[in-house]
Amino acid sequence: MSSSKLALKFLSQKDMIAAGVTDMKHCINMMDEAFTLLGKGDYVMGGSTRNSHGQRVWFPKEPQFAGMPKGGPDQRFMSLPGYLGGRFRICGNKWYGSNVNNPKNHGLPRSILMMTLNDPETARPLAIMEANILSGMRTGATVGLSARYLARDDSESLGVIAAGPISKYCTTAIVNELPSLKKVVVFDINEEAANKFCAEMSAKLDIEVVPVSSFADAVKGQDVITSAISGDHTPLFEDSWLKEGSLLTLPGRANVEDDFLRKAYVVPDGWEMQKTYKIEGLMLPEDERTIPHIQLHNLVDSGEIKESDIHDLGKVAAGLANIDKNSARKKYFISNGMILQDIAWATAMYESAVEKGLGQDLVMWDEPYLV
Ligand SMILES: NC(=O)c1ccc[n+]([C@@H]2O[C@H](COP(=O)([O-])OP(=O)(O)OC[C@H]3O[C@@H](n4cnc5c(N)ncnc54)[C@H](O)[C@@H]3O)[C@@H](O)[C@H]2O)c1
After folding, report:
1. Is any ligand 1 atom within 6 A of the Cβ of residue 228?
2. Residue closest by Cα to atom 41 of ligand 1
3. What domains are there in the chain, each with its CATH number?
4. Which atom of ligand 1 is nearest to the CA of 233?
5. Distance 306 CA to ligand 1 centre (A)
6. Greatest CA separation found in the chain?
7. How crowded is residue 116: how many other Cβ atoms within 10 Å of its Cβ?
8. Cα–Cα distances in angstroms (integers) from residue 93 to residues 79, 131, 135, 162, in the given order
9. CA-CA distances (angstroms) from residue 61 to 56, 64, 69, 73, 117?
10. 129 pairs with which residues across the strands?
11. Distance between CA 148 and CA 267 in Å, rounded?
């Protein structure tokens, strides 16, 4: 009989690093496993469709109460619960807050994240961990996985839009996956950030990484493009800038042209999650409504794009969708992030921490207080 004592592991950022959280190759392979399970359907996410990205705490633009934070772009709290099956068979929840002014005003990262893992049968908490690196890694690794399945084998150039932490993880992952790459170009509205990014990444990745002075220069003629801007601007990727056969992979916000969507292979992280975004978005007042990739939904609703032509990365990873990555057709990967990614990488870190004896054991009770 299992003990009724309840203890869980706490993993600090230092413990997470010692457990191997920065190992990009390992993380990309874990994302492959997680997305394969998504493709097969062995998962549950929150909300009534079982496919909700998560629950957002969204402050009003004009708060009526003293002390209540004022809402703004990239300012939110989010809780992302879910269950991942297969050999994981575990529940998890990521809880984070984001404030785009954190770096400038407080010397803190834009977002601050924590992750909890639970046994799915008993609900017993297993671990609580620092999740900034974990979350950035799983985001980058998923973009890397999209490069594994969607980028041409002869890809030589990578264009990076925005020089923030998410782009660093994405660049690391793409370079890891595409040995044919020869050059990376970077554009950020903050020139200093772009220069720092180039110095750091070229030293770390052993590849030429150089800044360019315009958004268009970071896109035109590149074999792979990744974009992770924050704030309220949403750039437009003109179809004519995007090279035949190229991969546009988007962990961040962007606009594309209808014609690009009609012609490209469209690969979301999870199409059912994207549909749930729309259902939930329509419940918001019109002036606060944000539905990611609404343009794609509109083209599906008008019949110009068939749902059967949209393939999740999970379907691709599970071998249930056929995409000719070496063809001249453009590819479009859209990622809003799924808790399944966090659960997979957090489980790997928890198992590694147990094996290596890392972290602190926190006792919640020796015997439960039962009334
Ligand atoms: N898809 C996912 O799973 C996922 C996960 C985490 C974060 N994100 C998103 O990624 C984005 C970036 O995250 P971060 O932590 O790196 O943010 P950050 O704020 O730390 O850095 C963003 C960078 O973008 C630059 N930027 C802003 N507007 C720009 C523009 N118009 N052109 C070029 N550069 C511009 C900024 O100067 C900054 O250097 C956020 O919007 C976040 O919501 C996505």
Report:
1. yes
2. 230
3. 8-135+340-362 (3.30.1780.10), 149-338 (3.40.50.720)
4. 31
5. 31
6. 68
7. 18
8. 7, 11, 12, 28
9. 15, 10, 9, 10, 33
10. 11, 115
11. 13
**Which ligand 1 atom is at minimum distance from the Cα of 161?**
33
284 pLDDT exceeds 90? no
State how far the Cα of 59 lies from the Cα of 346, in Å rounded to an integer.
Answer: 29
**Model pLDDT, residue 230:** 85
- Alpha-carbon span 328 to 325, nearest angstrom: 8
CA distance 64 to 42: 44
Q: What is the pTM of this model?
A: 0.96
- Indicate whether residue 82 lines ligand 1 (CB < 6 A): no
Closest C-alpha residue for ligand 1 atom 19 = 230
Cα Rg of the chain, angstroms: 21
Check pocket membership of 255 for ligand 1, CB cut-off 6 A.
no
Mean pLDDT of all residues in the chain? 96
- Atom in ligand 1 nearest the alpha carbon of residue 100: 19
Q: Is the CB of 108 under 6 A from ligand 1?
A: no
CA separation for the pair 135, 343 (Å, rounded)? 10
Our answer on whether the CB atom of 336 is closer than 6 Å to any ligand 1 atom is yes
User: pLDDT of 348-359, one tens digit each?
Assistant: 999 999 999 999
- Statement: residue 146 has pLDDT above 60: yes
DSSP three-state, residue 92 = strand
